[in-house]
Amino acid sequence: MTDGARLPPLREVIAQYGLNADKSLGQNFLLDLNLTGRIARSGGKLDGATVIEIGPGPGGLTRAILDSGAARVIAIEKDRRCLPALADIANAYPGRLEVVEGDALSIDETALFDGKARIIANLPYNVATPLLIKWLRSRERFTALTLMFQKEVADRITAAPRSKAYGRLSILAQWLCETRHEFDISPRAFTPPPKVTSTVVTLIPRAEPLYPADAEMLEKVVAAAFNQRRKMLRASLKALGSPAEEMLEKASIAPTRRAEELSVAEFCALARVYASAAARGR
Ligand code: SAM
Question: Do 29 and 14 form a contact (C-beta atoms < 8 A)?
Fold first, then answer.
């Protein structure tokens, strides 16, 4: 029996504390213990780990993370209505759960732990992409991020070149992390059901970015290329203000190719050429 086995079922918790789902907070609760357990264990064993959970809500996934062996869970929740339910979980797992009331967009979660941590979260969809981009900036503090997104965003994170979903988010995420599609979850698994399918993704930060490039230059090149996704690169890259054909030639990329055909390595090559062109003032 786990420490939490004496806790009431989640449906009772929701009724007891009046946790009617608030759409503006992206509240779609997962009450299925098989699924919460599967998410908790997706990114590998949790034994002894420190885990940051964003948006614990009534605490279904929180319980699963604790039951999967995390030594310490720091859960950041914006909705104070959830705090009493989370306090009950903290009591059932003494000394292992800290609840922080706040907005995950503005909190510096890296100040809350020493060393490295995992992030596991069923993310509120309205802020999921900005949160991921924020965590990518401090990726050296995270061993792995196991995150649930709406499927369309998850597909963009893991997409390969020449697919419809391939774009800015794919390149940024794959440049900095190994990305892995874990599994899809039907809307029916949630209370209330969202309109779209959800997908769990694991991102494992790389020790070094996949290929050398300056992050800002890479972002500019990728943005220019994908802003005019259907155009050939010799046209779309003109927005950068440096001679597009010359840059493409230096990066050994045919000027007639389009953004979605380029690999992460090729975008990094272009970013390096662009950086030296910009340094020469052209
Ligand atoms: N983890 C729970 C589960 O799996 O059932 C709830 C997931 S629900 C999709 C998203 C949760 O994030 C809600 O509890 C919501 O209140 C919380 N939330 C929304 N915006 C937030 C923010 N900016 N910072 C922290 N928590 C937030």
Answer: yes
